[in-house]
Structures are given as C-alpha cells and as structure tokens.
Amino acid sequence: MEARAGLPEGVRPACVSSMSELTSIPNRVSPADGAASGGTHLASPDVVRARRALLEASADAIIGVDATWRISEFNHAAERVFGFRRHDVLGREMLPLIVPERHRAACRAGLARRVDSHAETVRTSDGDELHALRADGTEFPIELSVSRIEDGGAPWVAAFIRDITAQRATERQLRNRATVALLSADVGLALTRSGVLSDALQQCMQAAVDRLGCRLARVWILDEDSGELELGASAGLDGAEPHLLGPLIQQLI
Questions:
Q1: Which domains does the chain have, with CATH numbers?
Q2: pTM, rounded to two decimals
Q3: How far, in Å, are 7, 14, 15, 195, 218 from residue 53 at the CA level?
Q4: pLDDT, tens digit, for every residue of 233-248?
C-alpha cells in the first residue's frame, strides 16, 4: 500500500514493508542533497508528518512502546484490528490491553531484549502460535514482527501485528476437507472389498480412529427381535471392554 496523503512536497510515496522504513527518512536533508534528488529541504515537522503517513499506510497493525511498555504509536490498522481508539490507548501500558495473561511474561522479556539489543527485526516463525486480545476480550491468532527503533530520542520498540484469523480458518477448512475425503475413501474401500459385514464395520471404525485422531470409534447395531444394542465393531482404546459404554448408550436410547 502506498503512502501519499500527508507527505511533504518533494517526498516520494513509499511502500511500508518493515518498521525500519519509518526511520529511513533522514532527520534533515541538506539543500544540496534536496536539489540533487529533486526534493526539498525537510524541516523536523515535515519528517514527523512523513513518518506518520508511512505509519498509517501500513495494512498491518503497528504498535510502538517505550521502555516502560507504554504505547507511543497506534496506527489506524491497529484501531481496526484491536477495536481501540488511538487517543484511548496512547500512554497506557500495552501488555494488559492486548496480550493474553499467559503470554505477558514472555512478551515483556522479549520486548526488554529488543530495547537492549541492536539486532535486526525479528519475526515469529511459522510454527509459533501467538494470540492477542481485542477490546472486547476475545483472542485471535497473529503473526508478529518486532523492531528496535532509534530516531534521535530514547530507543523504542515497534511491533508489526497481522491478524491471521481468516488464514487459520481457511487452513482448518482445507484440513477438514482433506480428512473427510481420506475417511470417505477408506470407508468406501472397506464396504466394497470386504464380503463380511463385521469385517467391513471393523475397518470403518479403524479408519475413523486413524483419520480423525479420536481415541475410540464404535458402531452399535440394534437387534430388532430383542430391542437391544449390540456392539458391531470397535477400534481404539486397546483392551477396552464393550460394557464400558453401556451406561452411556442407555442414556442415549
């Protein structure tokens, strides 16, 4: 996404791909440099406006915190993702607002390392599963990139946060469809290849355990003469006796 609105005259629009770009605009450009590049001399307020435009151009939520963990930056995307208004969160401690309690100690330690370190931006790996809190208290999965920022004052930490709720939902749907397809294929083969009903049912129950990851799969058959349920096939929980589910079956009838 390009940042156009709010940029000083002579400053080209830029795409925000990392938080470090917000500090790539020099604090002051000399007249000679400005003439050579076709730009104009930037005063300090212009730099602030340019950085603000870049900040707001990001499609990701960007939250800046100082050494006391208080919020110093909160862009429009962060307002949309978290449900807070910028003026309501500036100056407030970040962790209780947007970090689930079980993650706060690790988050505090990680931010402290970023403040004390001069390392490059760090990102969560694909195997990490992080969650954040919305204003209404609901949790959602995120991807996170963290950078240490130095812009002439005290160093601060900026977090790029991406809401991956839709991505995770799509992944679950794809996994579920694949599982159903595999289970359907196993059941179809069992029913067509086996000439004995009990063997076919047993293969179906084993397929359910294997494909669905459940601990136990059973099928009960109603005896029309006696009106009683008889165990037709069972898989999983090796060694479990059929009578273990007796009380549960009676409740279901």
A1: 59-163 (3.30.450.20), 169-252 (no CATH)
A2: 0.62
A3: 6, 10, 11, 71, 61
A4: 999 876 555 555 555 4
